[in-house]
Design a protein that fits this description.
The structure holds 2 protein chains of 2 kinds.
Chain A: H1 3-28, H2 33-52, H3 56-73, H4 81-103, H5 110-128, E1 162-168, H6 179-186, E2 191-198, E3 216-222, H7 227-233, E4 241-246, H8 252-261, H9 266-276, H10 281-288, H11 299-302, H12 308-314, H13 320-341, H14 348-375, H15 378-402, E5 403-405, H16 407-424, E6 428-433, E7 438-440, H17 441-462, H18 466-471, E8 478-487, E9 490-497, H19 504-513, H20 525-530, H21 552-562, E10 566-572, E11 576-584, E12 589-597, E13 600-605, E14 609-615, E15 624-627, E16 630-636, H22 637-640, E17 651-658, E18 661-667, E19 669-677, E20 691-696, E21 702-706, H23 708-724
Parallel strand pairs in A: 6-8, 13-21, 16-18
Antiparallel strand pairs in A: 1-3, 1-4, 2-3, 5-7, 8-9, 9-11, 10-11, 12-13, 12-19, 14-17, 15-16, 17-18, 20-21
Helix pairs in contact in A: 1-2, 1-4, 1-13, 2-3, 3-4, 3-5, 4-5, 14-15, 16-17, 17-21
Chain B: H1 2-20, E1 24-30, E2 33-38, E3 42-47, E4 61-67, E5 70-76, H2 77-80, E6 93-101, E7 104-112, E8 114-120, E9 126-127, E10 141-147, E11 150-155, H3 157-160, H4 163-175
Parallel strand pairs in B: 2-11, 5-7
Antiparallel strand pairs in B: 1-2, 1-8, 3-6, 4-5, 6-7, 9-10, 10-11
Classes of the chains: A alpha+beta, B alpha+beta.
Chain lengths: 730, 182
C-alpha cells in the first residue's frame, strides 16, 4: 500500500468516526443543519479521497450515500430513525471497504459486495426514487450496476445538468470581484449540483501573489434558465475569465472538445468531469472508445481501465507529448501529497507531557552537572557535559515540535476581513506578511481571539467609510496589515490599519466620563492610547454587533498578559493606528543567563543579553557608563531589590537589549548560561514587576527570572517620579 | 467490591461533614500561642530550608521553595498576623496547605515555629471567636477550640491565606505606589 493510500485510509477512518458521531447527534436533533452539513462533508471527503487514490468501489458506494444526504440537505426527504440506521450501516460498510483497500485487495469479496449492493438498493429504493423524483438522474452514481448504461451509448450524456467551466483571470480579485459572489449569484437561477474547484494554476507559495486569482471551477448546474441568462451571471467578469457552458444532454464529443480547450491537462479534466457528475466514468470511457467495440454494461468498474491518457492518444485527442507532460504533472502532485503524508498527527497532550518531561530532564541534568563539577573528576565532567549537550538538543527538538507558523492563523483573517468589510459597507484589503514566523502552538491557539478583536476593531472603528476616506484624500480602499517578526527573543505581531487613528480628545473625554482618569490630569500620548485597554472603555458612538461593547480591549490585554506578553498601541491621527503584540517565543523553556546578587541567583533571558562587562570603579555614584562612546544607563539590582550588605569589590554589568533600548544590569557575579525551565510563580506574584517567573537550579534552589522589559520600565518610571517630586523621600 | 463501595461512601460522608466543620486539626505553635488548622487543608509538613526570597515583597511573603519541582510561595504567618517575621529555629517547619482559589487549587507554604500534634476537637468544644483580644484579625479566626482547659485558635484558612488578598498586598509592596506605569 503506497503512502497516499495509507493517508487516505487513516483520514477516512477519522472522517468515518466523525460521520458516525454526527449521525448520532443528528438523530437527536434532525433539524440541525450544521450537523447535517458535517455528515455531508465527511461523506464527501471520503468520496473525494477515494477518487484521488482511485478506489472505485468506495467512490461508487459513497456517491450514493452522498446523494441521499444531499436530498436530505435539500429538504427533499425527511430524516427518521430508519434512515439513520441505514446510514450508520452504510458507514460501517465504508469502514469494511476501507479494510479491503488497506489489505491491498483490488475489489471487495462476494459477501461484502452483496452487502454493499443490498445497502445501495435500499438507499436507492427507499430514499432516492421516492419523493419528487424528477431530479434524481443528476446524482446518478458513476458505476451503480442498475444504471442503464446502454442509454448513454447513443452519444448524449446522461446528466440533465448544465456544465459550466469557469477559469478566472489573475486580475479578478484586484478588480474587486469576488469569485464566490458569482457562484452565489448563480444559485439564484438554479442549483449547483456539484462543484469542483480547480486550483491547478496555483503556483508555489513563494511565487504566489496573494492578490491574484488562480481559481477555476467546474460546475454541474441544474437549472431551467437558458444559456443567455447563465452567461449573464458572469457578465461582470466576462473579460477576465474563460467561460464554457455546455447545455444539458450535450454530445460527448462536446465534452471531449471542452477538455482539450481548457488549460489543465485532459487526464485530470476527465477525472474532474466525472467527479462533478457531468459525465459518468462509463460515459467517458465509452465516449473515448466509441470507435472500438460497444462497451459492456459494467465495463467501467470490472474491466481494468486503460489510462485515460492512452485512450486520448488513441483517439487522437491529444499528442503523446502532452500525456507525458500530464503524467509528470500528476507525479508532482503525488510527490507533494507524499510530503504531506510524512506529517504525523499527535494529540497535543502527549506533546505537552513530553515537554514537561524534558523540562524535568533539564533540571535533573543541571543538578548532575553541578555535582560532577564539584567532584572534580575530569572524565565524569566530560561525560556529564556530553549528556548535557544531548539534553539540550532534545530540548530544542522537543520545543521545535510545538512551533508552528503563524501564517495559518493569519490566513483565517482573509475571510473575516472580507465578510466584515462587506457587512460594514467598507472596502478593506488585508495584507499579510511574516506568515512564516514560528511560535509556540499553545500560543497560536490563544492569540487567535485577541487578534480577532484587534482586527475587528480596526475594521469597525479604525478604517473609515469609503466616502469619508475619499473626503480625507485617502484611497477609498482601506488597508489592514497583519505582520509578524522576531525581535530579541520575542515574537511581535502587528495589526495596523490606515484609518483615522485614535482620537486623543475623545479617549480623554471618555476616560474622564468613565472615571478612569481625573479631569485635568496630564497624560502622555502613549498613556492616553493605553487607556483604551481599560475595562469598560469604548469610544464607538454606535455599538455594532461587531465591537463597541467595551468588553474587547481589556480582554485583549488580559489574554495577552496571560501569555506573558504585552500589547502596545501607537497611532497617528488621520493615518491609522498600529497595535503591536509582543509575545515570548515559548512558554516552557528558555535559554537563560545566570547571575548572582548576594546569595541569590537570578536568570536573565539569554536572548536579551548583549554582552557583559566589568563595572569600573570610576562610575561610582553615576548610574550610567560609557560603553564604547554610547551612554549606557544601568540599574543596580542590589539596590533595586534592597539587598542588605556591601557590594563586592568587583561588580559586573550585563548589557541587555529590549525593543531597541539598551540598558545595563549591575550584578555581583556572572555564572554563565543556564537552560531555564520556566515555572510559573502563581497568582500571588502575578503583579510583581521585574520578575517574569522562576526556575529551579541544579542545587534544587529556586531562582527568579528577571523580566528585563518590566525592570527597565520600572526604573524609568522611578526616575521620572523622582524627577517630578524632588522633595519626596525615597 | 461491596467493601470498596462502602469505603467510597464513607469517605464522601466524612468530607461532607468536613465542609461544615472538620473534626481533626493540626496544632502548631507560633510566637508562644497555639493555633490549629483543619487537617483536610494540610498536605504535608516539611523542614524549613532553601527559601528563595522574592524582592520587593511585603515581609510576610518569605519567598518561594522548590517542592519536588513545583514552585510554592511561603507565607510567614507571624508577620501576616502583624507581628515580626518569625526567627528560624531548629524546630521551624513549613506546613504545605492546599487552598481553593479562583484559578483552582493552589499550594502555599506556611512557616510555623513548631508543629505540635493532630487533635480531634468536637464541634461542641468550639467557641465562637472573640470580637477582639486575640491579637489577630477577627476574620482570621474560625473558632476557639477548647483543649485541656486551654484555648486553641482555629484559623480560617480561606481568609488567612486568601490568594486574592495576598496578591493585592504583594502588588502594593511591589509597586512602591507608582501605579503610573500601568
Amino acid at each position: 500500500m503506497d503512502e497516499i493510500t495509507t493517508v487516505f485510509v487513516t483520514e477516512s477512518r477519522e472522517q468515518l468516526a466523525a460521520l458516525e458521531d454526527a449521525l448520532l447527534q443528528l438523530e437527536g436533533s434532525p433539524e440541525d443543519n450544521d450537523i447535517l452539513n458535517a455528515v455531508f462533508r465527511s461523506a464527501h471527503t471520503i468520496k473525494g479521497g477515494a477518487g484521488v487514490v482511485e478506489c472505485n468501489f468506495i467512490v461508487s458506494f459513497t456517491h450514493v450515500v452522498e446523494n441521499v444526504l444531499d436530498r436530505l440537505r435539500n429538504g427533499e426527504i425527511k430524516l427518521n430513525g430508519d434512515l439513520v440506521a441505514l446510514l450508520l450501516a452504510c458507514s460501517d460498510h465504508i469502514g469494511n471497504l476501507l479494510d479491503v483497500l488497506a489489505a491491498g485487495t483490488p475489489a471487495p469479496d462476494a459477501d461484502l459486495a452483496a452487502e454493499g449492493s443490498a445497502l445501495l438498493n435500499r438507499l436507492q429504493r427507499d430514499w432516492l426514487e421516492k419523493g419528487s423524483g424528477g431530479d434524481a438522474p443528476s446524482s446518478t452514481p458513476p458505476s451503480a450496476r442498475d444504471e442503464p448504461l446502454h442509454s448513454s451509448g447513443g452519444g448524449e450524456v446522461e446528466t440533465d445538468c448544465w456544465h459550466i467551466s469557469l477559469r478566472f483571470g489573475p486580475d479578478v480579485l484586484r478588480n474587486g470581484m469576488d469569485p464566490l459572489a458569482f457562484l452565489r449569484y448563480l444559485t439564484s437561477i438554479g442549483r449547483i449540483v456539484l462543484l469542483e474547484t480547480i486550483a491547478d494554476s496555483m503556483p508555489n507559495a513563494d511565487e504566489m501573489n496573494a492578490e491574484s486569482c488562480y481559481l477555476g471551477f467546474e460546475i454541474s448546474f441544474a437549472s431551467t434558465a437558458d444559456k443567455a441568462s447563465i452567461e449573464r451571471v458572469f457578465d461582470f467578469v466576462r473579460d477576465d475569465c474563460t467561460l464554457h457552458i455546455l447545455p444539458p444532454h450535450s454530445k460527448l464529443s462536446d465534452y471531449v472538445a471542452l477538455m482539450s480547450q481548457l488549460p489543465e491537462d485532459p487526464m485530470r479534466l476527465g477525472e474532474i468531469l466525472v467527479r462533478v457528475g457531468a459525465l459518468t466514468q462509463a460515459e467517458l470511457d465509452d465516449g473515448l472508445r466509441k470507435q472500438q467495440a460497444p462497451p459492456e454494461n459494467d465495463s467501467a468498474d470490472s474491466a481494468p481501465q486503460m489510462p485515460l491518457g492512452e485512450i486520448l492518444v488513441e483517439q487522437k485527442v491529444v499528442s503523446p507529448e502532452l500525456v507525458d507532460a500530464a503524467i509528470i504533472k500528476q507525479k508532482q502532485v503525488n510527490d507533494k501529497r507524499a510530503a504531506e503524508a510524512r506529517l504525523i498527527r499527535i494529540p497535543a497532550d502527549k506533546l505537552d507531557k513530553l515537554i514537561d518531561l524534558v523540562g524535568e530532564l533539564v533540571i535533573a541534568g543541571a543538578s548532575v552537572n553541578l555535582l560532577a563539577t564539584n567532584t572534580g573528576i575530569g572524565e565524569l565532567i566530560e561525560a556529564t557535559s556530553l549528556t548535557g549537550r544531548l539534553v539540550e538538543s532534545i530540548r530544542d527538538a522537543a520545543l521545535q515540535l510545538r512551533m508552528v507558523q503563524i501564517g495559518e492563523t493569519f490566513n483565517r483573517f482573509t475571510r473575516v476581513v472580507r465578510d466584515v468589510s462587506r457587512e460594514l459597507g467598507k472596502d478593506i484589503e488585508l495584507s499579510i506578511s511574516g506568515g512564516d514566523t514560528e511560535l509556540d502552538k499553545s500560543m497560536v491557539e490563544k492569540i487567535g481571539d485577541p487578534l480577532m478583536h484587534l482586527v475587528r476593531n480596526a475594521m469597525d472603528h479604525g478604517i473609515e467609510a469609503p466616502d469619508v476616506r475619499v473626503a480625507n484624500g485617502k484611497p477609498a480602499r482601506g488597508r489592514l496589515e497583519l505582520n509578524a517578526f522576531h525581535d530579541s527573543g520575542s515574537i511581535i505581531i502587528e495589526v495596523a490599519d490606515d484609518g483615522g487613528g485614535l482620537n486623543r480628545d475623545r479617549i480623554m473625554a471618555k476616560a474622564v466620563e468613565r472615571g478612569l482618569i481625573q479631569p485635568g490630569q496630564v497624560l502622555t500620548d502613549a498613556e492616553i492610547y493605553n487607556l483604551i485597554f481599560e475595562a469598560g472603555f469604548s469610544t464607538a458612538e454606535q455599538v455594532s454587533n461587531l465591537s463597541g461593547r467595551g468588553v474587547g480591549m481589556d480582554v485583549v490585554r488580559r489574554n495577552i498578559q496571560s501569555l506573558r506578553g504585552t500589547v502596545e498601541v501607537s497611532s497617528t491621527v488621520g493615518q491609522g493606528s498600529r497595535f503591536a503584540i509582543r509575545l515570548p517565543l515559548t512558554l516552557a523553556i528558555i535559554d537563560g543567563f545566570l547571575v548572582g546578587v548576594g546569595r541569590s541567583a537570578y536568570v536573565i533571558p539569554l536572548d536579551s543579553v548583549v554582552e557583559c562587562i566589568e563595572l569600573t570603579r570610576d562610575s561610582n555614584g553615576r548610574d550610567y557608563i560609557n560603553l564604547r562612546g554610547e551612554v549606557l544607563p544601568f540599574v543596580r539590582l542590589r539596590e533595586l531589590f534592597e539587598f542588605r550588605g556591601e557590594a563586592p569589590a568587583r561588580q559586573n554589568v550585563v548589557v541587555v537589549q529590549y525593543a531597541g533600548l539598551k540598558a545595563g544590569i549591575v550584578v555581583d557575579s556572572l555564572m554563565g548560561e543556564f537552560q531555564t525551565v520556566i515555572k510559573p510563580l502563581g497568582t500571588i506574584f502575578h503583579h510583581v514587576k521585574g520578575i517574569g517567573g522562576s526556575t529551579i537550579l541544579g542545587s534544587g534552589e529556586v531562582a527568579l527570572i528577571l523580566d528585563v522589559q518590566a525592570l527597565i520600565q520600572r526604573c524609568t518610571a522611578h526616575e521620572t517620579q523622582r524627577a517630578e517630586q524632588p522633595a519626596s523621600i525615597r | 467490591m461491596n467493601q470498596v463501595v462502602a469505603n467510597g461512601t464513607r469517605q464522601v460522608s466524612t468530607s461532607k461533614g468536613a465542609d461544615d466543620s472538620p473534626t481533626q486539626y493540626l496544632t502548631f505553635s507560633l510566637g508562644g500561642e497555639v493555633f490549629a488548622l483543619g487537617i483536610l487543608n494540610v498536605k504535608e509538613i516539611i523542614e524549613f530550608g532553601n527559601v528563595t526570597e522574592i524582592p520587593m515583597m511585603p515581609v510576610f511573603i518569605r519567598g518561594v521553595i522548590n517542592l519536588r519541582g513545583a514552585v510554592v510561595p511561603v507565607i510567614d504567618l507571624s508577620a501576616r498576623f502583624g507581628g515580626n517575621a518569625s526567627a528560624v529555629s531548629r524546630r521551624t517547619c513549613i506546613v504545605i496547605v492546599e487552598i481553593d482559589s479562583e484559578d483552582g487549587k493552589q499550594d502555599l507554604g506556611v512557616i510555623v515555629d513548631a508543629v505540635n500534634e493532630v487533635l480531634e476537637i468536637p464541634r461542641a468544644e468550639i467557641e465562637p471567636p472573640p470580637s477582639f483580644g486575640a491579637k489577630i484579625r477577627a476574620d482570621f479566626i474560625q473558632g476557639m477550640g477548647k483543649v485541656d482547659g486551654r484555648f486553641v485558635i482555629i484559623l480560617n484558612v480561606e481568609r488567612v491565606l486568601s490568594t486574592a488578598e495576598i496578591a493585592m498586598l504583594a502588588r502594593m509592596g511591589g509597586d512602591d505606589g507608582n501605579t503610573a506605569t500601568e
